[in-house]
């Protein structure tokens, strides 16, 4: 490394601090709002730090008593978990074989290109027929129906990510296995999957985050606690009667915790996923 | 190993994906195309064939024009800023300093934050009466009186762009950082010993390594920005005076609020076409750049 | 095809051990309400709990969406087999709902007792082409709220009775430096802006539609928008009003940042509650003003009704629930945030006690409620009008041009 002058080092540290503040300030404010009293939040000039920490909104949203706002919020949290898990697993079920096949057979490039090309389709372009189709099969306002729709986003994405992840796995291994007379499924199970597991884990995280984040289809295709997801619940809070900004912030913190925790814990996997050609939009 | 049998096996592996894609994308897409030539409504009548009427009606509609330019403006600014800031932050992270690992971990946070939460958060920050932005700017002396950030056409779109850039620049930074770290040290050292200045080093050593990954980020971010719905839906719902109404919001209104499934579908197809044109143009440029690089 | 689709999902479910169905009562009703203005979510939940306690075989699932989502959610749920049984609907939707067959015609279910007991103005809420599509539930209009302490400080003894007086009083308060922007409105690009505009339009004697053609760009309709723009340009109106919804107006008013505010019934008791409000005890309410020589007071019909969807599998149970929710007994017991639809309630001490001022304002206001147009194209007209109002406020178009453009784009 070249020699760094003192001024340059000060500059670098200042800029790093600036970036950290830009990233952290809004997030910190979200949390502070969630524990501030509504009086603090509507004060002029604004109170940047609450006089007493107020965690009552968390207990309100986590309350389970029948027909309460908390129960409604919790059911949306449950729906988000259900829908995202089902869609993620289904996406991996179709994505792993396809991604592997595409990785080993460059002549499949065009097929895969077509699949990935669907990423360009805006959800609104599919929304009307999807609505009519779901209605026909009674899958509107249904976690299965929503998970099925999410497959349209997750499947191409996961396949692409997996193909990129499988590419560096050496071909000799499966050639050898194949000469040994191993069947296709044995080959996958014994030789490929152990090596591919980290790749699959990365794809799984990305798919889950993508499904967790989805809003548009959930807004259109769910109507009550049977299937309404967390993102829609938050949008309802933010647009509705709730004049307590702290409650909106609390819901935001709760919805952000799972993906942010996953993001931090799985940092390494995420960054390798990002740079292996797979990028979450 | 026979060469004829492999493709069949391979197709079998592809089959589940293809079935899923045909069901959840192929079928609806064909149906959208059919709908776009009809006057179908969302509930009730199946509609009649009306030829290109929906398309001609939309193309001459002033709402469509303004939504197109709003979307274009939003996309251009967001993506440009995300790329510039992302690369700068990546260059910063490529230096050695205390807390570098921590800062890189922080970049994950905005990216992992759900879009809906991001939009809600910024809407609270921009609140004209009790928002943190007004409070901070006033207390620091940058502003005399509180402003209506989301209530003025001039600032509303900018406010949306800021919220989008804040969430998405970290992604670009992480991609660019990985590309920077792939630059072999001896190449860099050689450039330094040749006496190349900072700009020339960036232009001839760093940039070629960055270009590929950045083009990928550029394509993806542009597609995403062009499809923008969640952010605007939550922060402004297209207001004030429809100055932030994007194409996706327009389709929602047409197809779902006004229940005109037919013209909504034609509008959605036109957006798809625009995104395709953009993506193809990018791919063309990418090929050209790759060709020059050789 | 359907089977193939389901297979991976079913496998996934089995893997996760997710169970979807829970133990259920014999009849389950799904009801859609709004989480905004009028009855609070808590009120509706406790009314419903009482109903469930009296009917152990019925379970009512409540769903709350913002007003902004109420129309779209109702329409979108029509495709769902298991959609809503009971929906709350705004006075402006029966025409469109009738055209699209969203609500059951319940004319036959309405008893003579209901017909004679409920205020005539309330019935207009649920009636389209002589058919009743539900029971009125929220009888509401926009009132002029004022901060008594601020008016007193500015030497104003009586609240304004005309819109011109409102401007003059606001100017006094502004000049005295009591608040920077005396009037708060909900002029966000939403239906709320149309409600404020309608109030003014009725005061100026305007018409939305005349001979089947839009007419709000002329006469009283134009005067109404000019008034809004003038008060905005003169700094009498809080400029943030153009991104306010009703709740923002309430926040500003109860924080003591406004002397006047136009809002629904529900604000009266909330702004008078010392728990959240800094102006509790100082809240005054009068009917929205009139215009000299044209009107004595003005009001928009902002009422809402409860109806049964055509997709409901339990229309009888749904109607039973609706009659309970709209019954005089229940409405009287929860009359702090929304006033009853029943005539005799307005003299019942259970209802009037502690809110005599509000009742007095209601008796004038409810009598002059002005309807927004009954047309299947209401959504389009409203959206065009919202844009026109905002363009005029922002100064990008003159009130005349803005309304003309709105009329051209109204789909009428």
Protein topology:
The complex is a heterotrimer of chains A (about 280), B (about 290) and C (about 400).
Chain A: H1 6-35, H2 38-41, H3 56-62, H4 69-104, H5 109-117, H6 123-136, H7 143-166, H8 171-179, H9 184-213, H10 216-221, H11 230-239, H12 245-265, H13 267-275
Chain B: H1 5-36, H2 53-59, H3 62-93, H4 100-106, H5 108-112, H6 115-125, H7 132-139, H8 153-181, H9 185-193, H10 198-226, H11 230-235, H12 247-257, H13 261-293
Helix pairs in contact in B: 1-13, 2-13, 3-8, 3-10, 6-8, 8-10, 10-13, 12-13
Chain C: H1 2-16, E1 27-34, H2 41-54, E2 58-65, H3 67-76, E3 86-90, H4 94-99, H5 112-117, H6 120-123, E4 127-128, E5 131-132, E6 135-138, E7 143-147, H7 148-153, H8 163-175, E8 183-184, H9 191-203, E9 209-210, E10 213-214, H10 219-233, H11 246-254, E11 260-263, H12 267-271, E12 283-289, E13 297-298, E14 304-308, H13 315-325, H14 328-333, H15 349-352, H16 356-365, H17 378-394, H18 399-408
Parallel strand pairs in C: 1-2, 1-3, 8-11
Antiparallel strand pairs in C: 3-14, 4-5, 6-14, 7-11, 7-12, 9-10, 12-13
Account of the 3D structure:
The complex is a heterotrimer of chains A (281), B (294) and C (412). By secondary structure, chain A is mostly helical. Chain A has 2 domains: 1-54; 68-275, MetI-like fold. Chain A has helices at residues 6-35, 38-41, 56-62, 69-104, 109-117, 123-136, 143-166, 171-179, 184-213, 216-221, 230-239, 245-265, 267-275. The radius of gyration of chain A is 23 Å and the shape is globular. Chain B is mainly alpha-helical and 294 residues long. Chain B has a single domain, classed as MetI-like (MetI-like fold). Chain B has helices spanning 5-36, 53-59, 62-93, 100-106, 108-112, 115-125, 132-139, 153-181, 185-193, 198-226, 230-235, 247-257, 261-293. Chain C has 412 residues and is of the alpha+beta class. Chain C has 2 domains: 25-140 and 302-363, 3-Layer(aba) Sandwich (D-Maltodextrin-Binding Protein, domain 2); 143-300 and 377-408, D-Maltodextrin-Binding Protein, domain 2, CATH 3.40.190.10. Chain C is 42% helix and 14% strand. Chain C is built from 18 helices and 14 strands. Mean pLDDT of chain C is 90; it is low at 1-24. At the A-B interface, helix 1, helix 4, helix 6, helix 7 and helix 9 of A face helix 1, helix 4, helix 5, helix 6 and helix 7 of B.
